[in-house]
Write a structure and sequence with these properties.
By secondary structure, this protein is an alpha+beta fold. It has two helices and 14 strands, in the order βαβββββββββββββα. Helices cover 17% and strands 47% of the residues. The strands form three sheets. Strands 1, 2, 3, 4 and 5 form a five-stranded antiparallel sheet that branches. The longest helix is centred in the last third of the chain and has 20 residues.
Amino acid sequence: MYKRVRLRDTVEVPPRHLADVSPGMVKKLLQDKLEGRMDEDVGSVVSVIEVHDIGDGAVLPNEPGVYYEAEFDALTFDPQMQEVVDGEVVEVVNFGAFVGIGPVDGLLHVSQISDEYLAYDEENQQLASRESNRTLGTGDAVRARIVTKSIDERNPRDSKIGLTAKQVGLGKHGWLQEEREKREASTAEAGES
């Protein structure tokens, strides 16, 4: 889930920029420091939007810059347990598909995609069913639900999000469209009888 949140943090302004301590400059320093960082409380900081308040600054012994505390708004992405998300398959491997959901990827394990057996087709980089001829490959749009979440603040790339698509209304968008069309056709046939 994307959220706009009000945060406070401290940035170091290098000596060469002390004459221009402005909201724009502090925003740039905050962007460099925070964007892409993962935090257990707010999720992943996508963008620093606006700086509201800049403190007076503090000098620390043996440190060349001046440290300013700033209050600012940021756009964050904080995936919630059981949240339904839309994403795009960014990589297919023999054990499942990695789905880009916002600034992070979630794993849709092969056992959580379908009740059918899906074989890994390495040549075409896709998972394929022999029963229904359905495939899931890179670039496919998927709707899934978040079932596990482990955030690693020190190394955001090691954060893990587990997804499932084994529920009515979840799965590859093309499969969902096929199911809607089947329901509409059977409803139309039932209405004609």
